[in-house]
Amino acid sequence: MTDRKIPSIMASQHPDNVFAPHWNATPYVTTYQETEECYRAFHDLGCDEYMWDWEGKLVDEAVIDRLYRKYLTFFKKKQLGRDVFLTYRIPNVSHEPGYRVGRAYAGLLSAAEFAMELGLHAPPIFELILPMTEHVDDLMRVQKTFNQTAKFQAEVFKHKVHLDRVNVIPLFEGVSNFLTAGDLLSEYIDQYKAYYGKRPEYMRPFIARSDPALNSGIVPTTLGIKVALSRFKEVAAKQKVELHPIIGPGGLPFRGHLHPQNVEHFVNEFRGIRTAIIQSSFRFDWPEEEVIKAIKYLKRQLPKGDAESIGKKEVAQIEQVITIFEKYYRGTIEKIADLINDIAAHVPPRRERMLHIGLLGYSRKVGKKKMPRAISFTASLYSLGLPPELIGLGRALEEVKKAGLLDVVYRYYKNFEHDVKTAGYFLNKENLEFLIADGAVPASMRKDIALAEEIMGIELGPRSLEHFVHRNSTSNVYFLHQEDRARDKEIEWAAKWRKSLG
């Protein structure tokens, strides 16, 4: 067993909150307020890890200096790198410019020196999350470049804290990557051993939840995760390396369905996950006492979970189901991409982001169509009363049922009906008919709803007062969109009723 504490709750900067944090006047959190957000996550909520995001957004590079200078009393009791953890997410130079990576390395190395000077645990930061991990070379590049940077700085600046390696957390962000993640980890462990002379003590493979859903839909994403968790279990046993998986869900079903009132369903669905990310909506859109209670529950339950083992035959069936669902989902999303992008432009921002285009990074795509980020994507469709969970659903279920594979969906996606029903509460069937008549969405979306209701034996639509008010607000968004009038306030108002921006 590794000697280090493995965190259960990682707070992140994902901007999916509707309401303002209890410590801030507005829902918008600036780059310089994120230091306080980090402290509050530890001190107020009991989180044991915080993701500091260097990828796709502006970043305060002096985070360690600010935390220690402003909250030194707290961090003497809860020491960074020992009791609570700050983990950098760095750009992947295979997809983005690499100049920010060097700044992240320098920040990590200087933080170790500063902590030692203060008599605190050093190093305070020793893990880096690598997004869009697709090849073992991506991981080894981080190991080798960090090693070279550390040696150079130690030699030039006479560093007293000697760091020759860093723990790299591979972030897998696509369903196809989930299916091969186990092989990549095994290959990385072999190459790590060849480079350092021993295996890593442990690894924390990170499974994304939002971008895979944007690209493939909710069912392929959930099923793909189950295959990844099963493979991680196999690799850990074979390589004799501890694997502690991380998952990055949002509050709505499409993005993972983790919010304070759904923690029991979440834990049951994703057994084998060791660390759950709680995003902004989890922390800011619910009463603080509920948030703290939910965090305590996750801390107790996540370490107990054991991933289900899935055999080769069952994996082949899952892959068949994934292919069917992706076909109908992607085919529809490409047809309504212009509508999604039109609405996304009016989703109110919550953070200082950098554009993911051209020299500043990468863009999301489904087929040949560019898409907004996952939060804006989800917010756009919910704001029209067209939850993305339902797109392509009915036709996929029909084909899966004919193929005799419907039980595969229900067996491996335990909360399938619960998630579909929850998303269905926010469906606006009147808007759907308007948009079909306008030619903005295909008539097949009507068929998806009807078939899903028939095959699952449920009725989709609002049930409570909150759901009906949300429906009315999405009608307002539709008519404001038709007139090309400001709709950001109405989008925000609708989001308040579902307790998540997107």
Brief synopsis:
By secondary structure, this protein is α/β, with parallel strands linked by helices. 52% of the residues lie in helices and 9% in strands.
What does the model show?
- This protein has 2 domains: 9-304, TIM Barrel (Alpha-Beta Barrel), CATH 3.20.20.60; 312-498, no CATH class.
- With 502 residues, the chain is of the alpha/beta class.
- Helix 6 packs across helix 13, helix 12 (337-344) packs across helix 13 and helix 13 (374-383) crosses helix 20 (488-498).
- Residues 355-362 have low confidence and may be disordered.
- The protein is built from 20 helices and 12 strands.
- 50% of the residues are buried.
- The chain has an 8-stranded parallel β-barrel with strand order 1-2-3-4-5-7-9-10, surrounded by 5 helices. Strands 6-8 form a two-stranded parallel ribbon. Strands 11-12 form a two-stranded antiparallel sheet.
- The radius of gyration is 23 Å and the shape is globular.
- Strand 9, helix 8 and strand 10 form a beta-alpha-beta unit.
- 52% of the residues lie in helices and 9% in strands.
